[in-house]
Amino acid sequence: MASRVGRAFGILGVALLAVAGQVSMASAKPVTVLVPELPPMVASDGTGREASIIGETLALCGHKAEFKIVPFGRHWIDYRDGAAVDAVATVPTDMPLPGSRSAPYIRYQNGASVLKAGGLAVASLADLAGKRVITFSGAPDVLPGLREAIPSFADFRERADQMVHSNLLFAGRVDAVLADGLIFAEYNRQLQEKAKNGGLPFDPQQDVVFTAIFPPTLYTMMFREAALREEFDRCYADLVKSGRVDAINRDFVSRYYSTVGDRYLSNR
Fold first, then answer.
1. DSSP for the chain?
2. Are 230 and 101 in contact (CB under 8 A)?
3. Which is it for the CA torsion 107, 45, 87, 26, positive or negative?
4. Which of 145-149, 195-199, 241-245 has the lowest mean pLDDT?
5. In sequence order, what are the residues at sequence separation of 6 or more whose Cβ sits closer than 8 angstroms to the Cβ of residue 97?
6. Which domains does the chain have, with CATH numbers?
7. Distance separating alpha carbons of residues 108 and 41, to the nearest angstrom
8. What is the reported pLDDT for 266?
């Protein structure tokens, strides 16, 4: 009899804990985060490598991430100008913004991508002297040595829409793309899907070569409230210890292996 009562109370205890957990999650304050649309880091539907890391970190703290997705670069401006959000993601470690800065939570691997058929070997920015180069908006403030190298290029462009990068490379209008390898690979994939219906004036199936000529770029988050930032850092550390962050990274890198090979954050 006593054992049955004990078991009954044990089951009741588990049930009460489950209900308490559900109530806690339901009552948790949503955390609104400004993020740039950069698939496969953050796609327009709020999924992606970076979205997963942020969302799962906040969930571990009992919060629900609500992403406000805007074009790259505008996320910093909107946050700085007082947007009604709790945090902004994808902030370079040395970018001055108001609020409380988190520990770095993600690394991007920027590099140079060229058409294999062109035979251009790129080991450093010096190899792009006299070449036509395109990169993302704000890259000279993010990629080491780029600003100093710009005068050596035959042509240099910054474009926020990174689909344009792939378009121009495949069309032969630029010689090199300087960008994160996964982002570049994802836009190539989108172009390849589009080409199935015809209509593209170039072949997006051309072989490309990605070389990680820059050190990994670390990004942080800025929070309006220090207490929320402290929660994020603590829960992110727990997520790392659990192996979940590594699992997310491996999953996304493997999806684009045909483009980045073992050169994305390899041995870094």
1. -HHHHHHHHHHHHHHHHHHHHHHHHHHSPEEEEEEE-BTTTB-TTS-SHHHHHHHHHHHHTT-EEEEEEE-TTHHHHHHHTT-S-SEEEEEETT---SSEEPPP-EEE-EEEEEEGGGT---SSGGGGTTSEEEE-TTGGGTSTTHHHHGGGSSEEEE-S-THHHHHHHHTTS-SEEEEEHHHHHHHHHHHHHHHTT---SS-TTS-EEEE--SPPEEEEEEESSHHHHHHHHHHHHHHHHTTHHHHHHHHHHHHTHHHHTT-SSTT-
2. no
3. negative
4. 195-199
5. 76, 79, 80, 88, 91, 222
6. 2-108+218-260 (3.40.190.10), 110-211 (3.40.190.10)
7. 9
8. 78
The pair of three-digit structure tokens given for residue 108, joined into one six-digit string: 């991007």
Residues 205-259: pLDDT tens digits?
999 999 999 999 999 999 999 999 999 999 999 999 999 999 999 999 999 999 9
Amino acid letter for position 219: Y
**Strand 64-70, strand 100-101: pairing:** unpaired
pLDDT at residue 20 tops 70: no
Within 13 Å, how many C-alpha atoms sit on residue 207's CB side? Answer: 7
Residue 69, strand partner residues: 35
Q: Token pair for residue 9?
A: 């109370």
Residue 88: how many CA atoms within 13 Å on its side-chain side? 27
